[in-house]
C-alpha cells in the first residue's frame, strides 16, 4: 500500500484530455520513464518492509514467518530475537524463493542484511538500514538486480484518543536510499541500468473506532480505512536506462496524498515537479486529485512548464506489478 504511489503509471487509463497541444512522444516517455523506475524500486523495498513489520510484531521471533512446507527457500536469522536488545542484525537469504501474487509470480535470490536500532531508546521509534547483496527478483524471463542501501527511520509515533470512542495513530518515517538497478531479459544482450537516490518523508494517519465497551477492560479498536491518509514529500533523483538524469520533488506544503475510497487507494491531492536532463531537457508539473466522476480513480494533469501544454488522464492504483520493460 505504501508503495502504491509509484505504481500509478503502470495501470490502466480510462479517459484523457489534452489542452494547448499534445505532449510529444519524447515528453511522454520522459514523464512515464522515471515513474516506472520507482515502481520497480518500491516493489522491492516495500516487501522487505512487510517482512520486518511481521518480525517486529512477533518480538523478532522468526517462528511466526511461514515458508514452503517442503523446501525452505528463505532463511531469516535474528541475532537477538527479543523485544529489548538493540541494535539487532537481521539477515534474509533467498534461494529461488517464490513470492506470488494473484496475477504474477516473483522468484527472489540473494541476501539482504538489516540493522535495526532504536531512536533515544524508544522501542516504537525504530531505524532500519537495509543492505542489498546480490539481491534479485525474476518474473517471467526478466530479472531485476538491486544493490545499495535503504534506511527508514521512524521519527515520530503518536496516539490520540477521543475518549473511548475513537483513536488516531500518526507515524512519521524519514526514508533515504542510494540504490542501483540492473534489468536483464532472456534473449536480450543489453542490460538496462538505472540508479535512484531518495530523500522522503512519509506520514501515515490511521483511524480506529471502538467496537467494544466503554472501559479499558472491554475496549476494542478496529481500523477504519476510509478515514486513513498517507502523505509523501521529498526528492527522488535518478538516472534512467537512457542515461538521462531526472529529479522529482514534492514539497512539504503540498504533499502527494493517498486516501481510500471503498477500500481502494486513491491519490487525492498533491503536486509533483519533474525535471529531466538528457538529449531533450524538460520540466513538468503533475497535479493529482480524486476524479469527481470516478471517486476510485485519480485525475492526473501533466503540464509542460516551458510551453504550458497539458495532458489529463485517469489512473487507478493497482497492486499488480506489470512487466513494462
Description:
With 325 residues, this protein is mainly beta. The protein has one helix at 25-57; strands at 16-19, 74-78, 88-100, 105-119, 122-139, 142-162, 166-185, 192-210, 221-223, 229-239, 245-250, 256-261, 264-269, 271-277, 282-291, 294-304, 310-315. The chain has one domain (4-315). Helices cover 10% and strands 56% of the residues. It is globular and about 65 Å long. Mean pLDDT is 81; it is low at 1-20 and 319-325.
What's the average pLDDT? Answer: 81
Largest sheet: 17 strands, antiparallel
How many DSSP E strands?
A: 17
Which spans have pLDDT < 50 for at least 5 consecutive residues?
A: 1-20, 319-325
What's the overall geometry? globular
Number of domains: 1
Alpha carbon gyration radius: 21 Å
Topology diagram in text:
Blueprint: E1 16-19, H1 25-57, E2 74-78, E3 88-100, E4 105-119, E5 122-139, E6 142-162, E7 166-185, E8 192-210, E9 221-223, E10 229-239, E11 245-250, E12 256-261, E13 264-269, E14 271-277, E15 282-291, E16 294-304, E17 310-315
Antiparallel strand pairs: 1-17, 2-3, 3-4, 4-5, 5-6, 6-7, 7-8, 8-9, 8-10, 10-11, 10-12, 11-14, 12-13, 14-15, 15-16, 16-17
